[in-house]
Write a structure and sequence with these properties.
single chain, 133 residues, alpha/beta, three-stranded parallel β-sheet, two-stranded antiparallel sheet, 19% strand
Length: 133
């Protein structure tokens, strides 16, 4: 059984999501909270609900690592911009760096995460709690 924590700003949304998830025998809702910082290490999955249209946030707490690999602040920023669907040129413009620098950061990020695509990188970030949606 997968242990799940539900995080959302709205109490009503937290309760509704927890009830929906708890209806499945595959999941055990072990925590319902307004903040990721409240979630303990006993969960397998953290479900973070956000408002429609809001950009993903970069979590800078316990999610600083993915699979034991520490990500730099810049790597976390680039990961969040990947999640927004930005291309290399757009990321470079947003961060005020060269496109080749973005490519280098992506190569290092993919290597650290053990992935080969932008989508896999974002999925790894979400799964490990580095990116909050």
């Amino acid at each position: 059984m997968t242990r799940v924590a539900v995080v959302a700003a709205s109490e009503e949304l937290r309760v509704a999501l927890a009830a929906a998830i708890a209806a499945s025998p595959a999941f055990d809702v072990v925590m319902v909270s307004a903040s990721v910082e409240d979630v303990g290490p006993s969960v397998d999955v953290i479900l973070v609900a956000r408002s429609a249209g809001a950009s993903p946030a970069v979590h800078r707490g316990r999610g600083d690592t993915i699979g034991g690999t520490v990500l730099s602040n810049r790597e976390r920023e680039i990961l969040a911009l990947l999640a927004d669907g930005l291309g290399n040129k757009q990321i470079a413009a947003r961060l005020g760096i060269a496109t080749n620098t973005v490519k280098t950061h992506l190569e290092l990020l993919f290597e650290k995460l053990g992935v080969s695509s932008r989508a896999e990188a974002v999925a790894a970030g979400v799964k490990q709690g580095v990116l909050l949606f």
